[in-house]
Design goal:
binds 2-acetamido-2-deoxy-beta-D-glucopyranose; globular; single chain; PhoD-like_sf; Purple Acid Phosphatase, chain A, domain 2; 29% helix; 2 domains; 7-stranded mixed β-sheet; alpha/beta; 6-stranded mixed β-sheet
Length: 455
Amino acid sequence: MAVVVGVVGLVAIDTEGGAAEGEGEGKGKVVEPLITRIAFGSCANQSSPQPIWNAIIDFDPQVFIWLGDNVYGDIRRPFKLFGKERTIGPWKNAPRFIPSSPQELESRYQKAKINPGYARLRHTAQVIGTWDDHDYGLNDAGKEFGGKITNQKLLLDFLDEPQHSPRRKQEGVYASYMFGPMGRQIKVILLDTRYHRDPLRSDGSVLGSSQWTWLEKELNGPKSAITIIGSSVQVISNHTAATRPLFSLESWGRFPTERNRLFKLMADSKREGVFFISGDVHFGEISRYDCATGYPLYDVTSSGLTQAVEKAVPPVFSFMVRLVAWLTPTTMRVTNQNCRFRSCTYGQPNFGAIEIDWSATPVTLKLEVRDMDGYPVAGVKFPLVELQLHGSMPSVKAGEYRRHCSLEVDLPWNIKYRLAILLYCSVSVLLLTVMGLGYSATFVCRLLLHKCKLD
Ligand SMILES: *[C@@H]1O[C@H](CO)[C@@H](O)[C@H](O)[C@H]1NC(C)=O
Ligand SMILES: *[C@@H]1O[C@H](CO)[C@@H](O)[C@H](O)[C@H]1NC(C)=O
């Protein structure tokens, strides 16, 4: 309890039920502390060591935001091609992921909560958050998932959501927060991209109608200098367009109609200073879309706190992962001199760091992805006025390419499918070489045999 009391007053929660501005009201106006540092992260395996908390604590954030896969709550079965339960292959007959019991999920949250690093952070920062699929209860799950009501309670318990909070009564875990004093306020809007989400490939809804109504109110509500929208899945990058048919990732891009609705709502609200933060993909990346609203829309992706693509392969193959990241075409990724690697993605454990320099003229914003030691591996720094409406929106003509404006799907096919083409070509060359060698060997043998006979 002491933990909660220590940081209360930093925030006025305002969920769907419209909790009042709270705390200070009636006791005279409380001046909200100025917020200059916010950290965020996603994808933390509660059973793995989590040394990254040290770096996060060193960054000394006033607020920490969970963006989902806060624990791995479901059960992952091994890849099995043969046997009674086959989890991959065309003859697959068993799911690769299954939900665990509520008791099991609760004990996994307990384990996460008592992690010494995280426990320390909870003392010094206010922790808020939303979920993604694995803590929602099942890999890639959406509205059809049966365990969502129970699991909503478990997430909110993990986040120490007060018992009377309206967030416990609504369908889904979306919420919004207002931090900081008047004129320098930061609004954080956390979306729920699971509870109401239609199946993948349906181009249906991501948020569902009640959450849309709420979001519209939030964006059109009281102004704030900065508005951070947290989405578990990426909003700007649509990597699937360029990684098909090899593999696909979840993102708002997979629901193009819904994504356009989001951009239109943002443009119509004329709200300034908005950017996204996201997780899910097991690598870090900063992307930017200039043709959605009247100013550049950034999406800072940090994933994960423990789960990262390069850790999924033996260290000698790390370069392969980086090569694939570098070869995957992208139109949205921000590439600059601040990146540790050429690809400007980062496939080792990482967290997101947001810094606002309110005393600079003009006020500046620094958005970074940082590594396990707290060093930046990707970053952008710009004056906050860059996120103000500048009248006309840039656009692209058909067949024309513009960085941060053309969609990945509109890239010429030979670029878009570069990864698949390269892989198939390499495999073909390999096969041909093997066949060629085999043929040559047979030929030489025949020749030798023939020679023997003649002798
Ligand atoms: C989490 O870590 C444990 C222990 O290292 C491991 O057995 C488990 O497979 C991991 N889970 C995921 C989803 O990576
Ligand atoms: C994202 O890529 C998928 C797969 O190619 C495509 O179906 C979808 O329309 C794309 N979305 C956007 C917004 O370009």
